[in-house]
Every structure is written in structure tokens, then in C-alpha cells.
Task: inverse folding
DNA sequence: CGATATACTGGACAATCTGTATAGCTGCGG
DNA sequence: CCGCAGCTATACAGATTGTCCAGTATATCG
């Protein structure tokens, strides 16, 4: 990861459609270089992929909430996670340190719908207790560019 | 959003590189249809973009933590968010309901480095208190495909 | 110091894809 | 019954991709 990698990622983040050739022009390097760098970044897992980023809100799921769970320990976390994964509205789940055992991000169509989703979560076998915090506003939307810049000494 | 949209998103999520033409072949529809659908999905904001997904862990930031903040109310949330946004390791920040005022996702290079990042967060003017939960494992990685399927009645 | 490996440049090629446009067909709503 | 919207099928020029190659500079190693 050097500065060129950083600029490359930034460029593609800003204008994903430009393609390798145009990118090489913008960065003033040979096309083969861009191609090689990109292949390496993907190969190393730095870039997970170029999939479409779907906005849950545009799909009608305008309510986001963070739910912390307390798990009945005997079973362990994995079986719980496996069942949580079956709920489409559970976008993400982590085991965490601290008072709670897991933290998940869920979405719902409305506050009323949120109740339904939460019911689905607490109905998961092994979940003892759930505590919900609704996201009122996304002050900083998920991003990684500043981190890339920090890591590569770019911009 | 109908089933074709769902299959289209799923296809591009699985193999982002295939291109419009190949996608039209896979879905057995005309190329123009795929192009029109894609344009509409992007136009409607359902698909935010096709930017590279960067893995912070591959960049050396292997530690993820969720920090809940209590904010000194007089200033409001926005100035705090604005300052949090300047910290590259803050990947995301929300204002939330419940005991705490904000929840942010941060990353760091190590547990020791996490201390540095948290110090940076609590140093933000307006932050009264911070409570950190380290992510031990990502049981369900961030995903939206199941939601797309649920919303479109796909597979 | 000399030899080898690595990365980048600049160029070439065929095959493919994109952007864009047209015309005809079909189902739905007025 | 008519018109509109969405889809199919097709066309074409221009651009891009995947893949080579040779030459050069920088770095590494013995």
C-alpha cells in the first residue's frame, strides 16, 4: 500500500464507472500499472469487491436500530448468530465486550415494523434480553476513504 | 422494485465484473432492459454506487469497536459529529435514542492503538463520556442481499 | 561490484463491450 | 378502442478490455 494505491482507491470510490484505461490517464501511469495494482489490491483483500451498494432506506427500510443482546451462555454465540443471520433485517451482528454479549444492526420499515423485527430477534433461541437504540440520524455515514488516506499518506 | 430488480442486484453483488451485456444473458432479458433497470435503480438511489469496498482489517486496522458517547447538550450533536468526522478511524456515527447520545464505529491497529483513537474521540469538544465495546468477532458481516430478497420476493 | 528479480512504461492486437438509436410487439389504464 | 410504457431485437461506431511484448530503472542478493 503506497500513495498510488491510495489515489487509485480514492479515484474509483469517487467515480467507479471510469474503467482501468481512464483511471490510468487520470493518474498518469500506464494502464498495465493500474491493472496490476487493482489485481493486487483485490488479491490481498484490501478491496473486497465492487458490488452494488444497496441503500436499505430506498428499499423502504427507513428505520435503523442497534440492538444489544444478552445471550444465554450455555449454547454459546454461534448458534444464536446463525439464527440471527436468517433474519433479513439483521444487517450485521458482532459479539462484543462489556455488559452485553452481542450488538446487531437491524432495519425496519417503520417504528411499528421495528417492533416486529425485534420480536423476531428476541424469539431467537438463546437470546435472554434485548436492548434497542434507534438511530435518529446518521451523522457520519459509513466510510473508509479517510482511513485509506491515513494509511497511505494520501491527500 | 420487482423480482427482476432483485435478481439483477443479486447477480451484480455476486459477480460485479460481468458487465451489462453478460448480465442480460444470464437473466435472459434484452440488454436494453438491464441497462434501463440499472439506470433506474441508481437514479432512485436504491443502488448508491459501485465503489470499491475497502476492508479496514486488510489495511492494518484489525480492531473494531463501538463507542457510545454522552454529549454535552448545549452545543447539540452536529458540532460534535463534525469533529468526529475528522477522525479517520471513525467509520460511522449515529445519534441514537436511549441512555447514550451517539454511537460510533471506530477501528484501530491494535488494542493499544485503540486507546489512542478513543482518546481522540473523548478529546472532541462536547463529548462528556465515552463507553467502549470491542468487537470480538463479526458473526454476521454487513450485508443487504437478504433484505433485497425479502423486499423483492426473490429466491 | 555484477547478476537477477521486480515494477513501470509504451505499444500492439483481436475480441468484446458500451452508448445510443431504431422499430415492432404487448399489456395496462383511461 | 387508443395511447403509453416497458420489453425485445437489432444495428453501428467508438471505446475498453485482456493479453502479450520489449525496454528500462530501481532494488535485492551474493
Result:
Amino acid at each position: 500500500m503506497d500513495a498510488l494505491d491510495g489515489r487509485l482507491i480514492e479515484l474509483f470510490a469517487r467515480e467507479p464507472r471510469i474503467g482501468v484505461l481512464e483511471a490510468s490517464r487520470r493518474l498518469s501511469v500506464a494502464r498495465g500499472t493500474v491493472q496490476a495494482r487493482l489485481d493486487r489490491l483485490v488479491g490481498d483483500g484490501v478491496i473486497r469487491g465492487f458490488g452494488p451498494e444497496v441503500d436499505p432506506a430506498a428499499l423502504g427500510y427507513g428505520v435503523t436500530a442497534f440492538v444489544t443482546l444478552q445471550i444465554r451462555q450455555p449454547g454459546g454465540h454461534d448458534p444464536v448468530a446463525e439464527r440471527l443471520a436468517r433474519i433479513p433485517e439483521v444487517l450485521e451482528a458482532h459479539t462484543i465486550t462489556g455488559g452485553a454479549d452481542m450488538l446487531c444492526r437491524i432495519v425496519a420499515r417503520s417504528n411499528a415494523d421495528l417492533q416486529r423485527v425485534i420480536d423476531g430477534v428476541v424469539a431467537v433461541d438463546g437470546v435472554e434480553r434485548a436492548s434497542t437504540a434507534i438511530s435518529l440520524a446518521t451523522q457520519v455515514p459509513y466510510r473508509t476513504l479517510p482511513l485509506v488516506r491515513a494509511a497511505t499518506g494520501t491527500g
User: Anything to note?
Assistant: Residues 3-52 of chain A form a domain with the Arc Repressor Mutant, subunit A fold (CATH 1.10.10.10). Residues 29-33, 36 of chain A lie near DNA strand C (CB under 10 Å from a C1').
